[in-house]
């Protein structure tokens, strides 16, 4: 005996519910991971080091005393480069987390739409007739 449309629909909805719960768990995990991102960057052979947070804001900047022996424009460029590298690293990490989330969600069932409902109604009518 073939399962009825109602049984198939229940199974379908159960699968969708389980998938939705899985995606929501992944979203919550991604949110936590995004909040914990710290990007690192350095310049001038490590004399300047920077750390950026998840939104690109600067958390820390360390300039070695040896860096002060360099001319002002070289120090400024090294600071800029270290900051930019830290921000890019934070962005790369965020993009990886989002990419992983998108990959996981890509397998999610398509939402219920009018064609799905119409198909199910036709099947019910066929089962009755």
From TrEMBL:
Gene3D superfamilies: Nucleoid-associated protein YbaB-like domain. The lineage of its organism: Bacteria, Bacillati, Actinomycetota, Actinomycetes, Streptosporangiales. Pfam families: YbaB_DNA_bd. It comes from the Bacteria. This is YbaB/EbfC family DNA-binding protein. Transmembrane segments: none annotated. It comes from Nonomuraea deserti. Keywords: DNA-binding. The keyword DNA-binding applies. The keyword DNA-binding applies. GO terms for molecular function: DNA binding.
